Amino acid sequence: MVSGPVVQAGSISGGVVITTGTPTQSEVDKWTEGLALGVQKLWRREEAHRRIHDPVALPVRWHPNPELADQWANIRRLPAGAAAEPLALSGSIDQLGEIYRSIPSGRLVLLGAAGSGKTVLAARLALDLLEAHEPGHRVPVIVSVGSWNPTTTPLHVWLAEQLARDHPGLAAPVQKRGPSRAAALIDADRVLPILDGFDEIDAGLHRAALRQLNTITDTPIVVTSRVEEYTSAVHGADVFTGAAVVELDDLTLHDLAAYLPRTAAGNRTGIWDPVLQRMRAEPHAPGPAMLRQVLTNPLMVFLARTIYSDRPGQNPAELLDTHQFPAEPALQDHLLAEFVPAVYQADQPGSRPGWPIDRAHRYLTYLAHHIRKAGTHDLGWWQLRDTIPRSHRTIIFALLDGFITWLMFGLTNGLAFWLTNGAPQGRRLGSVDGPADGIVYGFVVGLVYGLPAMLVSGLVVALTVGLTKALRGQRRRDNPRFLSTKFAIALGTGLGTGLASALAYGLMVGLAAQLAYGFKGVGSAVSNGLLQGPAFGTGATYGLRVGLRQFGVETQAALVAGIVTGLTAGLLVMVLAGLSARRIRVRSAGPPPSRTRLQIRGRGRFIAGKFGLGFVFGFGGGFVVEFVDGIALPGAGLADGLLDGLPFGLWVGFMSVLAFGLEAPVDAADVVGVGESLSRDRRNAIRKMLAVGLALGVLAADINGLPFGLATAVVAGFVGVRATSAWLYWLVLVRGWLPLTGRLPWRVQAFLTDAYQRGVLRQTGVVYQFRHARLQDHLITKAPNAVED
User: Fold this and answer.
1) Which of 517, 645, 691, 772 is 20 to 30 A from 549 via CA?
2) What was the pLDDT predicted at 726?
3) Interacting residues of 582 by C-beta distance below 8 A, sequence separation 6+
């Protein structure tokens, strides 16, 4: 690894990049070649899926647009005073790679109307360049630029995020807490950005985007855009420095005659002949002229082909009917509206039944609304939970956490009481009284992550402590006159002891969380620990238990005290959770999909770190339990805490390695699609749930018996891993709540995969997009209130 700062000029990150701990040249070469292979796999698959060459590619052509281009001297990178001759930029799709390579600046803008084939051309350019790619050269990468906000995010930062998302092998940091491999490739000038959809950037930001592009010098960049938005940006800012500009041509009647008849099969090969013949014979008649104008757009040709060539029983001659379609917008709306019914038509005999057309249309409309609300064109499976308002998600998980906790701990408490009914007092107390301790540590992981788990834990502690005290009974009869005094002493002692232990444990967990989950700054981690400490220990409830054990109180008083104090602790948990949430800023706004694989070789230092973190966590849990209990038991305390803490530390350390220490990034050449991304996150979530559940379940079982340990394992595994797993949110909200409310089908992933296979959706890396923005807009405008929340 190279040490010291490295300065590199001429990259997309702004001209000068200063980094420390940069990767070696061989590492950069390896990642570059992996990226090249991954991009090639991705766009070959997409080109085949979009039927670009089925049966032949549409003859898309273009011409130069010098009014929006820079001066030829700048495009050709000529020295001052040199004569600058225009480049021959006109051509067709099979010449795109050759024409691009003739541009010395490497900067090209592809302009065209909506549906004119800009994305198809971008994909063809990337594949053409990759076919002649040489080691060490830039890799063309297509990114949908609509989500970029140039006023808040530098292009190189946003681009690194997109690369890491779509190519998971580049998401891993070069070094611990260092920049990602994607960022390293950008710094090394190994990426040729193809920014697709400049017009999709939020309105009002196009000029800012163009200004930021012009701050990047000497770096090849390709941009695609609709004409109007790019023209407005140029007039409001400046031309794209060094960029040549071409504009896509309309399809001609000759192009249609060469293409459409070849799309129909069997006995339908002649269905387009009457339509084409009439357009030739009556070029100025309203019907033929209007249809000819609509079909100059490749998107409309694709829709017409899907509706009439691919679907039996349809006659394209109806497209000439001016009574049914009096104007071009009506004809375009018809083609957009019939596309979904066409692809969801009755399946072939013997095939698996698909979704009914009306349901498919309703589900797709819901997805279109969600994408519009999110301000993007991307549909990530892990983002579908955001279609549910945050307040609703909180309530759903609070209820679910409460149900699981009630079910598991209710069963274990009931089982323990049933098994020990009639047994000696000490045996009963050992199996039933324990939940007041074990609850604290069963929720250790879950409490770090938010309000729902904290609320539920407060309620569970309240009920558990109340039940425990009621079952526990009185060791001696006390005079009622002294009951209030003893209770006050017990309460004071318990509050002090519980609060002190909770703060100490919370501080330790806060620091551990800073190391494990990346809270920004040790100060925030310490604040988090101090604020959430009483929630971890539920100081009032836990302390009251110590006080009651020490002094002994009547059964009825213990029941009331347990319930009241537990509910008070629950309210305390709510307040502390709110305060803590305001103080913490986590690097990620939510759990992204996990994209890792298991690997041990060459990762000893990293694994040792995870083991050490788990050891501290487990040792702290075992030590605090025994040390605090020792206050109430003469002859115990520090020694027991140390003896119990050591094995628990080793156990939790081992489980920490299993949960978090064996993850390694996937290879840069891997093409991880939507389904594979979901599957990997599911596998990682289940592994982490098992590891966290076993780690804390064994701790709880040692303290309070096997039934309670099993309950702790289930609750801790589910609640604790949720903050690091997008799949659990997907399982509960997307696979559960959304289908339950009728917004999406029960087999959501199967529906998305099917929509992709039918051509309604397209895939870019690990996200879906609608086949075209016009289709998405049509679904929204024709059903504006169909599935609004």
Assistant:
1) 645
2) 82
3) none
Cβ atoms of residues 698 and 380 within 8 Å? no
Helix (H, G, I), strand (E, B) or coil at 6: strand
Write the class of the CATH domain 26-248: alpha beta
E strands in 14-71: 16-19, 61-64
Give dist(CA 633, CA 645) in Å, integer: 18
Parse the chain into domains and list their residue ranges: 26-248, 265-343, 385-586+593-724
Look up residue 735 and give its DSSP letter: I
User: Is 536 in contact with 440 (CB distance < 8 Å)?
Assistant: yes
Q: Which amino acid is at 748?
A: V
Query: From the CB of residue 378, how many other CB atoms can be counted at a distance below 10 Å?
Result: 19
Mean pLDDT by 10 residues, the chain (789 residues): 34 48 85 92 89 88 96 93 90 94 97 94 96 91 93 94 87 79 93 96 93 91 97 94 97 95 84 95 94 96 94 91 94 95 70 78 93 86 86 75 63 52 42 39 37 41 41 43 49 48 46 44 45 41 43 43 42 40 36 53 61 61 54 50 58 60 55 75 78 70 64 69 77 91 92 92 88 91 58
Instruction: Please tell me the total number of residues recorded for the chain in this structure.
Output: 789
pLDDT at 505: 44
Collapsing DSSP to helix, strand or coil, 542 comes out as helix
CA 449 to chain centre: 17
Q: For the full predicted model, state whether its pTM sits above 0.90.
A: no
650: exposed, middle or buried (Cβ count in 10 Å: 0-12, 13-18, 19+): middle
Residue in the block written with tokens 């079982």: 701
Residue 539 carries which side chain, given as an amino acid letter? G
Contacts of 119 (CB under 8 A, 6+ apart): 142, 196, 197, 224
Contact between 38 and 167 under an 8 Å Cβ cutoff? The reply is yes
110, two tokens: 């592809």
Q: Look at residues 614, 700, 621 and name the one whose alpha carbon lies nearest to residue 660.
A: 614
Coil vs helix vs strand at 109? strand
Partner residues linked to 222 by β-bridges: 108, 194
C-beta atoms surrounding 638 within 10 Å: 11
Class of residue 772 by CB neighbours under 10 A (exposed 0-12, middle 13-18, buried 19+): buried
- For residue 16, list its beta bridge partners: 9
Q: Which pair of structure tokens corresponds to residue 74?
A: 């700048």
Residues ≥6 apart with Cβ < 8 Å to 488:
none
Task: Provide the pLDDT for residue 16.
Answer: 39
Return the axis-axis angle of helices 604-632 and 638-656, rounded to nearest 10°: 150
Closest-CA residue to 592 (of 766, 754, 463, 708):
766
Whole-number pLDDT of residue 696? 67
In this structure, are residues 467 and 437 in contact, taking their beta carbons and an 8 Å threshold? no
How far apart, in whole angstroms, are the C-alpha atoms of residue 481 and residue 463? 27
